[in-house]
Each structure stands twice: as structure tokens, then as C-alpha cells.
Amino acid sequence: MAEEEKQLEEFEQIDFLKDRHVRFFQRTLQVLPERYASLETTRLSIVFFALSGLDVLGSLDVIDKDLIIEWIYSQQVLPTDDKSNLGRCGFRGSSHIGIPYSTKGPGVLHPYDSGHVAMTYTGLCSLLILGDDLSRVNKQGCLAGLRALQLEDGSFYSVPEGSENDIRFIYCAACICFMLDDWSGMNIQKAIEYIRGSLSYDSGFGQGAGRESHGGWTYCAIASLCLMGRLEEALSPRELDRIRRWCIMRQQSGFHGRPNKPVDTCYSFWVGATLELLGVFRYTNFEKNRNFILSTQDRLVGGFAKWPDSHPDPLHAYFGLCGLSLIGEPNLRKVHPALNITQGAFQHLQQLHQTWRSSCGQQH
Amino acid sequence: MSGVEKTSNESPEVEDKNKEMDAEAEESFGDDYGVEPSQYLFYSDRKEWADLEPVPQDEGPNPVVKIAYSKKFSDVYDYFRALLKKDERSERAFALTADAIDLNAANYTVWHYRRILLQALSKDLRKEMTYITNIIEEQPKNYQVWHHRRMVVEWLNDPTEELAFIAEILSQDAKNYHAWQHRQWVIQEYKLWDNELEFVESLLEDDVRNNSAWNQRHFVISHTTGYSDPAVVEREIQYCLQQIRKAPHNESAWNYLKGILQDHGLSSQPGLLEKVLELKETHCSPYLLAFLFDCYEDALENSKNTEEQERQETLSKALEICELLAQEKDTIRKEYWQFLGRSLQSRHGRSSSEEPPGAEAESLPASGVQEAS
């Protein structure tokens, strides 16, 4: 009897609580308490985590897609009539600047309003996930806004006013160009140089040259090169083998982001997806990875945390799910490892690309 | 406190979780609300702000991921938005940015506006250094605060406080990525290399497994003496082996050792293989074995003129290491070590009847998905 109870308890410990996660993301999309204030300027990326999370769960039907599409478009910084703000176009994280709500142009001139590269990236992904055809995206604006962000060394700022610059924003830029099917938004060669310059002596990638190698920045490097279609051009076979080794050594149970650091749920995606892109994810230990991710699952409110017995948050909830999706957890949709949206959303994008290319003779 | 209607259909466990997390947040931000509620005046009640029309956040009919702000929070930011709209450059605007930062130090627009004001009003940048020092101490993992500090240091063109300040932050968290990044920038920009190797060594004394410190070691040496001097390389090899003897299970030390030698060929460093084989007996680890494997692989790749017999012996040793790792010393990566063994075999093995049976790679699952058992 005791044996059965123990087995039952073990099963309960490691089962995946889909409904809780659906509700977690639903609540995220509604209202967050004030202690989440630091997320204000990045709210669109939180929207992305929730939407993509629901998509991975096959549960987008629980939300009103059209309403959310409208809200996302209201974050677009559109060109003004005289197009004097083209270099500032893209998507905002939220309405925190105080621009009056509007989902259509022309843009409103405001001394401090501009897009943020990570919000443009997650905004476009979110629209795709919701099945939108991107027809209301001002592509000229987005690409001009993107070009304005790239520095001489190939890296990007996040906003035209200036910010820190590093490999994260190269990844955002690559995603934007990939989704808009237009690489005029960036100088690929310079970006590749910056990426190569970020390769550390231990064959992981740092946030920039000389910096400590890290699972998140390694993902940004490899995924960017894959999206650009330049992985094998930029890195030699020997370098790729060394990078595979660095990545695969990150598995401890789940994965950590740097040698001698604790494991953290989100690296199951950052490192896992990198390994998948490099063709060797299959050689990791799926069972230990799964057990760790599920140990960070919040059984009451849903979502995942970075560590066991910690509070869940939208980012770790999303990447926990993606980590499980990579290992083939039943009832989870597959995620495109470089673009980080479901294969279904990716196929929708491919169809859009086909449509755009076949009407290429017409004016955009 | 929040003044926003709570969704009444939250489940009890969510309500409980929210209460728990609100209480934790109160603990860490308790001081901010230390002012007696009756003494705090909303901006909307301050007569010196009466000329300004506050600008609320316009979320539209269906806000998504809406944050439920308290009246105090909205009040500050409604006035912030008003200032932004007219691009006001004034002392009162500067003072308000401090309140806005206090409520949300991750709002990059507030920081940008504050920098505009610092310059427009010719504010005392030394005072600003004190200000940003305090904020970073409270929130050392925020991107905006470190970027702001960098801007002020650049304007002052004065890095003299930086190394000590960063050391203080690192004393609280020796692996803070922002701190290390700022440190590298300061050192490179202002050429402050002189004492950095000493600093790195003191951190490695504290924790020989601090991967950030090992990275910094490589940063300093590659930008000063470089690694082309054989004396430097020899010194570094000795340093690594010494640290490995103290703490064998340390990926950082082995990564560093491999990193500084691999471009010249691991197998070309005289005497190294022997030392590692010695260490294998008393200070073994998965990293040591992986290093050995890499030595053997390097020997196979780069010694085309070696006798076939010797090459096969090297191959055999390499495959033994793979088996040892897969079966015993690094079982979590079993599939990987076996894959490496198969790859090495197919690249360098003799095609003869003496090949062990089953050497052909077994077919992998088509989708690359293993069953989670």
C-alpha cells in the first residue's frame, strides 16, 4: 500500500499541469499587480510570452485575438505626415509615454516617442501568432527605425535615443528582418563581425567582445546566424564543434547559463534551442531536463519559476514550456528554435512571404 | 492602496499568492513608503504644479497586460508624461525624475529625460555619481542604471571611482554580469590594466570556481602581454594546474586551459599530456577526461605523418575516454560522448575487418526526439 502511494505521489510530482498554465497566461494578459511596475516599458514582450505560451499549449482559443491585435497596433510608432521621424519608427512596449490611443496613422510627433527594437520584434511575433497578416505594419518605418539603431561595430542600440548596445539587439534585428523578409534593415556583414567578436576563448558567446560566455547570448549569436542563413559561412566546422561542446556542458540536470552557476529553467530553452539548431540536442538527457523544469512548476497558480520553490513569472513560464516542447512533451506544439514561435505560426509567416513575393511586381 | 477594481473571480490560491508576493514586495520597498501617508502630497495637490495638466496613460478600450498602479504611482507618472509632452527643462522636472525612478528604475525614457536635464541645467555631475551609486547598490541587475553611470563617467571623463565601486558590487555578487561588463569597459576605455590581474587572483582565491573571474583573467592577459610569449603560456598552464589540484571539479579552470592552448594544438604543448595523465589518477573529473579526449583528437587531426599504428593507438585511447565518460564519469552526456566516439571512429578509423562490430552509427530517431522515460 505504501509503495503504491509513493508511486502515485511521484507521478503527481512530475506531471504537467496544462490547465494551470493556460490560466496563468490568461491572467498575465489581463491585469498585473503594481509590483510588476518594472515591466511597464516592456509590456509588449510580456504579451508575447503569454501569447506564444498559449500557442505552445494549443490554447489560443481562450483569448480574443482581434482585441489584442488592435492593442498591439496601437503601440506602433508610425511615420508622421512629413516622415521626419522615420528613424524612430517601430513598436513601443506600452503607452507609458502618453501618446493618445490610435491604431492608425499618421504618426503623432512627440519629442520622446520612439520604438524599441525588442518591442518591434515581439510585436511582430505576437501579430503573427494571432494570425494577423501584418498589412498594417509600416514596413518602411520599421526598417528605417532599425537601420538607425545599428552601430559601426555591427551591434544595435535598443532605442534611437541611445542605450547599451550588444548581441541581444542583433538577435531582435535579425528576427525583424526575417519576419519582414527584408534584410535592408541591417548590415549583415557587420553584425556577423560583432557576433564572431563575441566568441569567447571557451567557445561560448558573450554579450560582446571579451565578455563572459553565457547561454542567452550564445542563443542570440547562433539563432541570428541561422536566421541570416550564414551559420556555416560565419563559423568553421571546428568552431561549431567547440560551440556544441560548450553548450552541451551546460546541462547539469536542467541547464545553467554559465559554468559553475546554478541551473535555471529558461536555459532549457536558450541552450536547448541552440543545441537543436546545431543538430545535437538529441544527445542531451531529456529525462533529467524534464524533471528539473517540472520541479520549477507552480502547482497552484501555474507557470514556471527559474528555480524550484520560487515564484513563477511570465518569462520563465514561457521558456519552461518551450524547454518541454523541445524534448517532445505530449500536447505541446513544436517551437521553431531560431524564431522562437510555434511551427504553426512560422508556417503562417512563410505563407505571408509567398504572398508578398508573388506580388513583388506591385508597389509595396 | 491600488484603487483599481480587483477581478473578483480570482481563485483562492491566486489571491493567496498575490498577498504573499505583495507582502514580500512591501518588505523590500518598505522604506519608500516610510513617509507618513498624511505627509505625502500628490503632485496634483501641489500648487507649484498647478499650471501643468497631467497626462494619463491612454490604454485604449482593451488594455493588455495592464499594470494596476496605485494613485501615488499614477500621479507621479501622469505629471512625468506632461513634462515629456512639452519637453520642459526645469528644476522641478529634474526633481520629479527622481520620484519616477524610485517607482520604476527600469523606465529608460525617464533616465534619458534625466540625462537631457542634467545637461540642460548644468547639474552637478559629482552629485549624480553619488545618486547613481546608491541606486545601483539597491538594484545592481538593472541595465538602465549601469548605462546611466557609464554616461556620467564619460561626461566627467573620470573613472577614478569605478574600480573600487565595481569591486564593492562584486563583493555582494561576484558574478554580476552588468558589473563585469562595466568593469571591462572602464579598464579598456581608460587603460586601467595595471592592477587587474591582482584583482582577478584575489577573487579566484575567494572562489576558484568563479567563471567570471577566469574570463577576466583571459581579458586582462590577452590585452596586455598576450599569449604568444611562451613564458606567459607556461605560467598560465602552471597556474591552471595548481588551481585544478586544489579543486579538481572545476569546469572554469579546464575551459581556460583549453582556451589558451587549443589554437596552437593541444597535442603540441610538450609535457602537457603526461601531466594530465598523472592528474587523471588523483584529480579526475569529466573536464579532465574531455580535455584528454581533445588532446587525442588534436593529435589525430594534426599528425598526418605519424605511423598508422600509433594513430590507431591514439584513436583507441580516445574511444576509451568516450566510453569512460559515457558509462561512468559524465553519464548525463552519455549520448553525446558516444556520438563523439562514433564520429572520431568514422573520421580516423581503419576500414578493416578488425573494426569492432556494431561500429556503424545506429539509426537515430527520425525527429531527434527521445522518449522521456
UniProtKB/TrEMBL annotation, chain A:
**What are the GO MF terms of this UniProt record?**
CAAX-protein geranylgeranyltransferase activity; metal ion binding
Keywords, comma-separated and alphabetical: Magnesium, Metal-binding, Prenyltransferase, Repeat, Transferase, Zinc
Reactions mediated catalytically: geranylgeranyl diphosphate + L-cysteinyl-[protein] = S-geranylgeranyl-L-cysteinyl-[protein] + diphosphate
From which domain of life does this come? Answer: Eukaryota
EC numbers listed for it are: 2.5.1.59
Going by the record, the broad EC class of this enzyme is transferase
Q: How does it assemble?
A: Heterodimer of FNTA and PGGT1B. PGGT1B mediates interaction with substrate peptides.
Q: What family name appears in the similarity comment? A: Belongs to the protein prenyltransferase subunit beta family.
What is this protein called in UniProt? Geranylgeranyl transferase type-1 subunit beta
Query: Encoded by which gene?
Result: PGGT1B
